[in-house]
């Protein structure tokens, strides 16, 4: 970067002289990118000296980038002299600058952008202060397409007939939940106790019910399981239980159980009508040995749900297995492999003994619910059209996220009034109105009032900011800043962004941005074979890996940590199972920050199991995918997709050849090698991590792993450490990459060459700000593209 | 924390429950026959206030098997062996160190403690039994066992007998016990209470853990067996297997049984397990 600046200053006077771009291209480029060969699908023989179209501008930009990175011409080709190179770079830079300035007044992009599924869900949540964990009206929505790796980019967010139908249905469901007039629902209290929780067994009466195995022996209140929760609300669940015989005569390996761990009890909820997908663990307790203890959990339950209690870390498998295969090892009277009576086992091994289960509720902090009374305050005995109109106006302002003029609201008022008059049921009419507002383009789309590019007004800026940082609508405070236009002041904008980043709702940013930038959502698409990877499934490593990366991102965000920590850092976040997977000691059970050994390979994203697993196919590593992942997500130089007619490398099932030997095939074909010389060294350098992110020194067939390599620019390196050093040597390249990704995500559109200056400015500003992640976000919020449309 | 004595107690308990304690007096009263559910405490309409009171401060058992005829039952009780072991004729109570006594001596307080009195009451009247045990219920420091030599009715009902026990070793009184008990188990129980070893070839198993409300199935029986002449029966909690090959399921009331049909939903291999157990038992003889 510094070098480029120097060149710029030196040659600014001769910029006009370098009109011989075609000559330069013919000399150094056209042999590979001309009429005969079009490597990487590029052809430069027709390139003119002047930028007249956006396509040409993109061409110029690409050539400039390659020259700046010194990636082209390739080492083994004739190289331009430094003087020639400098002239061309200056010429390209200057031409692009002019073109950009021109384009900004005429050719910027405005894309119509609807809310994606996550944004829809979050917006509904905040609009009506609803609990959405178990209420998802968007389950039938078609999946949002990703563009540039993000699913909130306008051009990918198509609207179909099918989606419109779904919007209508979803709006109906939301209206039914949100409009809850009338008196507070009556309290229920159900309780089940002793050994009748599950129904009598042929054994001595006890004042508890036994759970023998992990997860598969759920206990609930029979009455509730039949009847289910009828009213949405907050409920209190109480369970009295004790851990019994944690250490018993049975060997742990026979029971497939760990007697050293304290027993843990979990509570799950599930809705009969929504089926298995609604099943969710809501709470886990550690149950002490000895006397029974009463546990209490307060939670929001939707109607149709019921809860059950499980032993979260009991023996694995079934009671049937224990009766048939374990018991005979310990008593002569149990006969292998017959199904011996359960009474022979009850009381002899470890048990989670449940004394009572109870549920009470619903409780409400406020009634009517705040999400309802906000729009329908103090409803009169017989609400009339005046009250209806006023309520609809209140609703519309929030739903449309901006002030609503009479002309806009008129059709909605008319519709609702007609319904009320025809039907006579005020609350049915109110629901009808909510449905209408929730299917309005003003709600479903990020507002686009003008065709021409211009600066955003305060309301639009508020929405852009909140959808960037919260994936949801603005809250009261942000709306207030929009209403008095103070948000347009940089200091207020900055302070609001700070506040929003510290708010819990910024979890959505972490989940959606980091999840998509790093492709974490791919995790689990190709899981390893369950037979050989027991720990992976039993310890739920997939979720743990994902959580590690998200926690790492959150921490940097929270502390304004340097974004270079993504490349290398001396800590990460692990739970016990993941630490075991990595071979790192861990003091506790749950996720916590763990310092990494100085010489270890785990620092930074490249050591995260999530990244290493999602770039593998569940059976073996895929160096090409890993290489591309680094190029795309850390270096910001994604290679071109492979030609469509190419045969994939055949995997070596006998394991005789190493991955490196297989990859050599890429060298044989010059077209392949063009891209693979950049991809393969990176991927092969990571070979010490296997397909689920464990460290290995050798392949399964014992051949040693060779992680030495040479980058496309000739830099020699060794292993993942070498890759890290290489990346850290180019902080501006990574910063550029991340800035661009953030830009795409925040704007919801592709980055054009018109945004290039703004991105460059941000990248230049970062070293002075210690590369802080929060600062980077602030820079983006302050940038011109963010504040204009 | 003064945990040591507790831990010591815990380890010693199963082996010699009454080591160091004075052995309690024992009175065993058996009706010649009584249906297993004929006492008031089992839900019967018969008025048995004394037996009910004993059950209330003791334990009443649901699954106790004697034999079909009272003579064989008495033999099983005394010898602690199943009838097919024809060679064994000894009285297994003799070696336990009790002073033998009559009921009258026991009531009058003339028996030398610790004493053992076994009495068989002729007839099948539950009312008569209730009256008979009235003075016995007042005895102190006495383990009182009331049961019957035979049940009444056919098959399972004929060998199922009531059993009510009160006295010193009983913990958590007032409960119904669902553990499986054979009439051969009396002497091993007393042997454990006094801390004596008994003949290893004994067919009985001490039910002291059941009296003390142990939750450990490994200390208890998981099948019971009976025999009369050449026909035998064996059962667990849910099924009975007969020597003629019949295999039945025991109903909720524990006395009536119904034949297991192929279409019935029962745990697989239950019959095979009982077959194997009975073969093993009779092979050893």
Summarize the structure.
With 789 residues, chain A is an alpha+beta fold. Chain A contains 31 helices and 14 strands.
Task: Describe what you observe in this structure.
The complex is a heterodimer of chains A (789) and B (285). With 789 residues, chain A is of the alpha+beta class. Helix content of chain A is 42%, strand content 11%. Chain A has seven domains: 2-106, no CATH class; 110-183 and 368-454, no CATH class; 188-363, Galactose-binding domain-like (Jelly Rolls, Sandwich); 460-502, no CATH class; 510-614, no CATH class; 619-729, no CATH class; 731-783. In chain A, helix 6 packs antiparallel against helix 13 (426-438), helix 11 packs parallel to helix 13 (426-438) and helix 17 crosses helix 30 (773-782). Chain B has a seven-stranded mixed β-sheet. Chain B has a five-stranded antiparallel β-sheet with strand order 8-9-10-11-12, with helices on one face. The N and C termini of chain B lie far apart (51 Å). The chains are: A alpha+beta (789), B alpha/beta (285). Chain A binds chain B through residues 202-206, 249, 330-331, 333-335, 338-341, 343-348, and chain B through 175-179, 213-218, 222-223, 236-238, 267-270, 272-273, 276-277.
Number of domains of chain A: 7
User: Under the CATH scheme, which architecture of the largest domain in chain B would be assigned?
Assistant: 3-Layer(aba) Sandwich
Major sheet characteristics of chain A: 5 strands, antiparallel
C-alpha geometry of chain B: globular
CATH topology (fold) name of the largest domain in chain A: Jelly Rolls
Low-confidence regions of chain A: 1-18
* C-alpha termini separation of chain B: 51 Å
CATH fold topology of the largest domain in chain B: Alkaline Phosphatase, subunit A
Helix content of chain A: 40-55%
- The CATH superfamily of the largest domain in chain B is Alkaline Phosphatase, subunit A
- Nearest-integer average pLDDT of chain A: 88
Tell how many strands the DSSP assignment of chain A holds.
14
Shape of chain A from CA axes?
flat
Provide the number of structural domains of chain B.
2
């Amino acid at each position: 970067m510094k070098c480029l600046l120097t060149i710029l200053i030196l040659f600014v006077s001769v910029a006009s002289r370098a009109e011989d771009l075609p000559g330069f291209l013919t000399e150094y480029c056209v042999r590979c990118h001309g009429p005969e060969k079009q490597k990487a699908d590029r052809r430069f023989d027709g390139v003119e000296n002047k930028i007249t179209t956006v396509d040409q501008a993109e061409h110029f930009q690409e050539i400039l980038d390659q020259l700046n990175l010194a990636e082209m011409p390739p080492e083994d080709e004739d190289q331009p002299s430094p003087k020639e190179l400098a002239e061309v770079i200056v010429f390209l830079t200057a031409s692009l600058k002019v073109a950009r300035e021109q384009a900004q007044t005429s050719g910027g992009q405005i894309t119509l952008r609807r809310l994606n599924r996550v944004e829809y869900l979050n917006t509904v949540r905040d609009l009506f202060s609803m609990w959405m964990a178990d209420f998802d009206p968007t389950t039938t929505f078609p999946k949002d397409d990703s563009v540039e790796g993000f699913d909130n980019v306008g051009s990918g967010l198509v609207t179909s007939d099918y989606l419109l139908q779904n919007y209508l249905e979803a709006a109906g469901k939301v209206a039914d939940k949100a409009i809850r007039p009338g008196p507070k629902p009556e309290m229920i209290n159900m309780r089940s106790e002793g050994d009748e929780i599950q129904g009598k067994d042929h054994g001595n009466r006890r004042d508890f019910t036994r759970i023998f195995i992990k997860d598969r022996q759920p206990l609930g209140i029979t009455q509730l399981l039949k009847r289910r929760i009828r009213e949405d609300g907050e409920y209190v669940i109480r369970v009295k239980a004790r851990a019994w015989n944690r250490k018993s005569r049975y060997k742990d390996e026979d029971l497939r159980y760990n007697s050293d761990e304290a027993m843990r009890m979990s509570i799950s909820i599930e809705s009969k009508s929504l089926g298995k997908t609604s099943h969710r663990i809501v709470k886990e307790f550690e149950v002490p040995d000895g006397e029974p203890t009463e546990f209490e959990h307060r939670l929001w339950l939707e109607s149709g749900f019921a809860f059950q209690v499980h032993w979260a870390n009991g023996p694995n498998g079934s009671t049937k297995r224990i009766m048939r295969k374990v018991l005979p090892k310990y008593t002569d009277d149990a006969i292998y492999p017959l199904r011996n009576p359960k009474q022979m086992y009850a009381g002899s091994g470890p048990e989670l003994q449940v004394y009572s289960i109870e549920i009470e509720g619903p409780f409400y902090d406020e009634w009517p619910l705040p999400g309802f009374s906000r729009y329908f305050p103090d409803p009169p005995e017989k609400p009339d059209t005046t009250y209806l109109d006023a309520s609809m106006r209140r609703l519309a302002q929030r739903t449309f996220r901006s002030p609503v003029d009479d002309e806009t609201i008129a059709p909605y008022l008319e519709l609702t009034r007609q319904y009320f008059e025809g039907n006579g049921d005020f609350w049915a009419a109110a629901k009808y109105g909510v449905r209408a507002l929730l299917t309005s383009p003003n709600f479903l789309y990020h507002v686009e009032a003008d065709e021409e590019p211009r600066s955003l007004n305060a309301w639009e800026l508020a929405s852009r900011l909140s959808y960037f940082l919260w994936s949801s609508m603005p809250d009261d405070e942000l709306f207030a800043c929009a209403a008095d236009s103070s948000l347009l002041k940089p200091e207020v904008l900055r302070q609001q962004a700070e506040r929003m980043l510290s708010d819990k709702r910024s979890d959505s940013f972490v989940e959606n941005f980091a999840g998509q930038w790093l492709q974490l959502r791919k995790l689990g698409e190709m899981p390893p074979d369950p037979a050989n990877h027991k720990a992976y499934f039993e310890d739920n490593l997939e979720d743990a890996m994902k959580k590690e990366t998200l926690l790492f991102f959150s921490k940097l965000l929270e502390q304004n940590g340097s974004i270079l920590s993504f490349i290398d850092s001396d800590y990460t976040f692990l739970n016990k199972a993941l630490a075991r997977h990595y071979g790192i000691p861990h003091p506790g059970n749950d996720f916590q920050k763990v310092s990494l050994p100085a010489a270890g390979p785990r620092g930074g994203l490249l050591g995260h199991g999530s990244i290493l697993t999602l770039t593998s196919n569940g059976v073996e590593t895929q160096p090409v995918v890993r290489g591309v992942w680094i190029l795309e997500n850390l270096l910001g130089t994604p290679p071109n997709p492979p030609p469509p007619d190419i045969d994939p490398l055949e995997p070596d099932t006998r394991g005789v050849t190493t991955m490196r030997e297989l990859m050599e095939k890429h060298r044989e074909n010059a077209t392949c090698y063009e891209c693979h010389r950049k991809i393969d060294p990176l991927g092969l350098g990571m070979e010490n991590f296997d397909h689920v992110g464990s460290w290995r020194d050798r392949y399964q067939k014992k051949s040693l792993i060779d992680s030495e390599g040479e980058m496309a620019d000739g830099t020699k390196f060794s292993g993942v450490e070498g890759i890290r050093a290489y990346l850290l040597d180019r902080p501006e390249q990574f910063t550029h990459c991340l800035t661009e990704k953030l830009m795409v995500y925040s704007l919801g559109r592709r980055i054009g060459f018109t945004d290039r200056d703004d991105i460059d400015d941000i990248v230049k500003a970062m070293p002075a700000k210690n590369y802080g992640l929060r600062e980077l976000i602030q820079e983006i919020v302050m940038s011109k593209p963010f504040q204009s449309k | 924390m003064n945990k040591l004595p507790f831990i010591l107690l815990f380890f010693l308990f199963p082996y010699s429950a009454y080591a160091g304690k004075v052995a309690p007096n024992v009175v065993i009263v058996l009706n010649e026959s009584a249906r297993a559910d004929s006492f008031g405490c089992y839900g019967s309409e018969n008025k048995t206030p004394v037996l009910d009171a004993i059950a209330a401060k003791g334990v009443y058992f649901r699954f106790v098997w004697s034999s079909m005829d009272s003579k064989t039952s008495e033999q099983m009780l005394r010898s602690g062996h199943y009838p097919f072991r024809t060679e064994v004729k000894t009285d297994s109570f003799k070696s336990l160190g009790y002073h033998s006594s009559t009921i009258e001596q026991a009531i009058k307080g003339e028996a030398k403690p610790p004493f053992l009195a076994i009495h068989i009451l002729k007839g099948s009247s539950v009312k008569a039994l209730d009256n008979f045990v009235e003075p016995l219920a007042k005895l102190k420091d006495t383990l009182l066992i009331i049961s019957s030599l035979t049940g009444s009715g056919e098959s399972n009902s004929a060998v199922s007998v009531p059993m009510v026990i009160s006295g010193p070793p009983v913990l958590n009184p007032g409960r119904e016990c669902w553990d499986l008990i054979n009439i051969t188990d009396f002497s091993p129980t007393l042997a454990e209470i006094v801390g004596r070893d008994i003949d290893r070839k004994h067919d009985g198993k001490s039910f002291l853990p059941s009296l003390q409300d142990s939750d450990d199935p490994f200390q208890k029986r998981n099948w019971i067996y009976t025999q009369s002449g050449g026909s035998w029966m064996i059962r667990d909690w849910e099924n009975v297997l007969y020597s003629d090959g019949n295999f039945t399921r025991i109903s909720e009331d524990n006395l009536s049984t119904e034949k297991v049909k192929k279409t019935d939903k029962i745990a697989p291999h239950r019959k095979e397990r009982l077959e194997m157990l009975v073969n093993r038992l009779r092979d050893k003889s």
